[in-house]
Amino acid sequence: MALFNEGGLAEDLFSDVSIGDELPAKGTLIVSLNQWRENRDKLIGRSEPLGIRLKSDEKPEEISADLRHFSVIALEFPAFRDGRAYSYARLLRERYGYTGELRAVGDVLLEQLHFMHRVGFNAFSITDDDAMRAWEIAAADFSVWYQPTGDGRASVMALRHGRR
Length: 164
Description:
Elements: E1 2-5, E2 8-10, E3 15-16, E4 29-32, H1 33-44, E5 50-54, E6 72-77, H2 84-95, E7 101-106, H3 113-118, E8 123-126, H4 131-140, H5 156-160
Parallel strand pairs: 3-4, 4-5, 5-6, 6-7, 7-8
Antiparallel strand pairs: 1-2, 1-8
């Protein structure tokens, strides 16, 4: 599994402990929503960066008051046909103003990378053997967009009317 962000392949400095029960005493961790709820005060007191992993049925509203504590929010795609994480990414970026790393994890497919990026994801956990090539292919798929989104690209309508 490779971690890719807008700068290319990246070293994953976080240990995803969201599946286990025990929280290591040290290290940069990604915890589950349940672990966060049960250990919030202890986790806030740690000096290392912290991340949280939300399953597709765990809404970002549940952590909206605590976003400042997370360096990474990993949104899970349990299957390619489950698109709730797309909506959650937009909510986190546009409604809640989250500016940290928003990571797509789970069933992250090459064909969906550009759509994920358009809604606010800036890091992707990719199982492809050549993650850099996968990103290059995905980034070249489309050159114009009909829908306005939070990634800063102008829509076809804006381009047609001379706005960028």
